[in-house]
Protein: HIT domain-containing protein
Organism: Atopobium minutum 10063974
Amino acid sequence: MSDCIFCKLAKGEIPTTMVYQNELAAAFADASPLAPVHVLVVPKAHHDNLLDGVDAQTLMAMVECVEQVVQRTGIKDSGFRVLTNVGADAGQTVNHLHWHVLGGKRLSDQLA
Ligand code: 5GP
Ligand code: ZN
């Protein structure tokens, strides 16, 4: 996926505000934040979405990123939301798997 922006961001080929990374996944600030903390957690390998053949090791690497993000941004105890959009009805705009980590304020009760 040579033209995928999140592949480039995750591998450091384009500068970004990297919050944390490990061997298999990266966490960087969303360019248009919807909350005081809005970080995207992505695998370094390209997967279109959550159901696009993501292996368990990569998923656990992404979970580790979430844990590091909430610790480093100070929202672990106040609470946070993790969500991923898949496909058109969910409004997925970037076709590289990403988990939104949102927090730092009282989040909306509406999920749909
Ligand atoms: P989606 O709607 O696909 O779930 O979310 C895509 C997210 O990626 C949006 O929140 C959008 O602000 C963010 N985004 C899109 N392009 C870029 C980019 O080039 N850099 C960063 N850091 N975030 C981006
Ligand atoms: Zn990609």
Observations:
- Residues 1, 4, 6-7, 46, 96 surround zinc ion (ligand 2) (CB under 6 Å).
- The longest strand covers residues 37-43.
- Strands lie at 18-21, 25-29, 37-43, 80-83, 99-103.
